[in-house]
Amino acid sequence: NAGVTQTPKFQVLKTGQSMTLQCAQDMNHNSMYWYRQDPGMGLRLIYYSASEGTTDKGEVPNGYNVSRLNKREFSLRLESAAPSQTSVYFCASSPTSGGSHTQYFGPGTRLTVL
Amino acid sequence: RKEVEQDPGPFNVPEGATVAFNCTYSNSASQSFFWYRQDCRKEPKLLMSVYSSGNEDGRFTAQLNRASQYISLLIRDSKLSDSATYLCVVILNTGGFKTIFGAGTRLFVKA
What we know:
Radius of gyration of chain B: 14 Å
Shape of chain B: globular
Structural class of chain B: mainly beta
Number of strands of chain B: 11
Oligomer: heterodimer
Number of helices of chain B: 0
Largest sheet of chain A: 7 strands, mixed
Number of helices of chain A: 0
Strand content of chain B: over 45%
Largest interface: A-B, 18 and 19 residues
Radius of gyration of chain A: 13 Å
């Protein structure tokens, strides 16, 4: 099992450009999440998907959109990148069944917006 | 006030030392608690769950104090490989489940 995979690992964008971060999990988990991590701020939830076909806003959704393409895949899109979106982005998944809330993270995408 | 607060550190300790981290949470609807470990430039990984009665996993002991709304992590006989950031994680049950991560406590174990 690969667990949670993310692409790309690194990306540099210019202000105003768009891009999509890809995430996939092979653990048959119901829930998937997108976080950003900034120094001193901890992980902040951008969007999450409790199950295939549903998505909900997290703490910091502005400037982002998501798609839960199927049970395996959950993508994050930046329509018009801004320097404030420079961050490390982590995707995670969780079974959320049987009372388990453990989240499994992908390796992250380091995004710089110039 | 942040919902989950941790001392950012860094904690600098020699090998073999015992070190303890605390984490406080503000919402009494907090239901489940975890410690995650994050190595430099890597993703967070589950270290251990925290149970009401306290639990131990080798050199690591986690405790929960619901009355005072804090959890703790104790590391005995520190190893160089314990150097990492330790994240406190709280699950709220407010109709739906919400996961809140603390900002983390950095630990450096030196030879």
